[in-house]
Amino acid sequence: MISIRTDLAVEAKEIYSAQSNGKTSGVDVEEYSEGDIKITNVKIVSDVGEKMMGKPKGTYITIDIPEFVHYDGEAMDRVSVVIGKVLKPLIKLEDSMTALVVGLGNWNVTPDAIGPKVVSKIMVTRHLKQLVPDSIDEGIRPVCAISPGVLGITGMETGEIIRGVVEKIKPNLVICIDALASRKMDRVNRTIQIGTSGISPGAGIGNRRMQINEQTLGVPVIAIGVPTVVDAATLANDTIDLVLDEMIRTANSGGEFYNMLKSIDKEEKQKMITEILNPYVGNLVVTPKEIDMVINSLSKIIASGLNIALQPALNLEDINKFLN
C-alpha cells in the first residue's frame, strides 16, 4: 500500500494512517520524550500491519535529534546517552557474549559513509579479551567491527560477507548501521531509527540486496539508520503540495478555481512528477550541502550511544578515555 519511498517506519505509519482515515490495524505507536529529544516507538505486530506498512514485523524506534545539535558537543553527548538508553533493552547479551558491529555503505560517498564512520569510533575489545584478558576488566564485553564495503567495490554481496564473518566468529548479536532515505527534507540528518527486523542494504536508493536479518544470519540483528537523502521527485511533489495548499487557502471558497484545486488527485500528481523528472534526472536523491560535517557528528553520536549500550559497566567518559 505504501508507494512513497521511505525507510522510516514513522513515515510509513503516517502514510498508512492518512490512507486509512486514522485507523492503523496491526500497528502500535507510543510517543514520549527525554527532555527535548522526541522518541517514537512503532511496533508492527501482525501480518496486516506488515502488509500495510510495507515493512517486516518488529519494533522501530525513532529518535528525533534537536536542532543545532551538530554544533554542540554537550548536546551530542546528551543524544548519545538517550540512544544508549534505548538500545540497552534490545541488546540481550551476557558479559561474555560477543557483539559484531557492521558499518554498511560506501566510505567514498559522504551521504553513504555513516556506517563505516561509526565503525571507526566503536570500542572494539574482542581481540583484547582474547590476547590480554588480565588487562581488561571482567565487565568489558567482547565487541568486534567490520566495514564490508559495497558490491560495486568488492564484487561481493554485503550480506554474503557478513554471513561469512558470522559463521567464522559466531557472534551472539549483529548490529548494522546504514544510511536511509526519507520522504521529508526536515527529517534528513535529524532522525535516527533503531529497528529489530534487520535491514536491506541499498534499499533507500532502490538497490535491494540480500536481507541482513535473523533469518539469513542465524543471530538477532539490530539495524540503526539515519536518513541522509530524500528522493528528488518526492521533494518536488511536497513543494507543489505546499503551493497548492496555500492557493486553496487564499482562493474564494466555492469558486471555480477553488474547486479545480480541490479536485487535484495528489497521488496521480506524484506519479506525473516522477514520470516527468525521470528522463532528465533519473533516480536522483538530494542531500544538504553541509553533509560532511553532519555525517562526522552523527557518526560520533551513534558510536557513543552504541558504546554506552554495549559496555554497560562503563560511562561515556570512561569510553572516551579508552578511544583516545
TrEMBL record:
GO-annotated biological processes: proteolysis; spore germination
EC number of the protein: 3.4.24.78
GO terms assigned for molecular function: metalloendopeptidase activity
Maturation and modification: Autoproteolytically processed. The inactive tetrameric zymogen termed p46 autoprocesses to a smaller form termed p41, which is active only during spore germination.
EC class name: hydrolase
Propeptide part(s) removed at maturation, as residue ranges: 1-7
Keyword Hydrolase: yes
Key words, A-Z: Hydrolase, Protease, Zymogen
Pfam families attached to this UniProt entry: Peptidase_A25 (PF03418)
Function: Initiates the rapid degradation of small, acid-soluble proteins during spore germination.
Full protein name: Germination protease
Record gene name: gpr
